[in-house]
Amino acid sequence: MSHSQEHRTDSLVKRLNRIEGQVAGIKKMILEEKEYADVIIQLNSTRSAIQKISHILLEAQTEHALMHVSEGADLDEEMKKLQKVISQYNKMN
């Protein structure tokens, strides 16, 4: 694993840890019967954080594909992988 991949992984794990905290907070809000509007605000914040991770991974796959093609990998195979990631990304948005 390269240094940049390790950095990216660390960053993603930190983001996921924050999301776990947000979800725990939302659960607590529901158990404490907080105002629905406040719960929805937190849900939207969590959704945005998840979408950001998805965006980061899409960018990483794009960089990965371009790098592999420049190193001689099969363009069609890399395009298939990238299209699969794009398709999954679009389902989230």
UniProtKB/TrEMBL annotation:
A GO term, aspect molecular function: DNA binding
Name of the featured protein: Metal-sensitive transcriptional regulator
GO terms under biological process: negative regulation of DNA-templated transcription
